[in-house]
Design goal:
The protein is of the alpha+beta class and 90 residues long. A hairpin with a 5-residue loop joins β1 and β2.
Length: 90
Amino acid sequence: MTTPTRRTPEETGRLGDRIYQSHIRPLVEADHHGQFVAIDVDSGSYAIADTALAASDSLRERHPDADTWCLRVGYGVLRHFGGRSLRNPE
């Protein structure tokens, strides 16, 4: 097994966001709002769960060397601090 070339976190984020917006979001937005999506930016595979850790673990069971990016369905960020809602406007 070859070791994949790792990207910077910024590059992984850009790729993950692009894959989510173009391929995954239309499939998950209606039925999985608030859940977490872990995306393998190399293969485009993804897993959905109630926590980011559970989604990542599920994805890594199928793709142990995944370069993973996590998102929360329906939100612009994975987590936030403060009192303002960061839900994406519809």
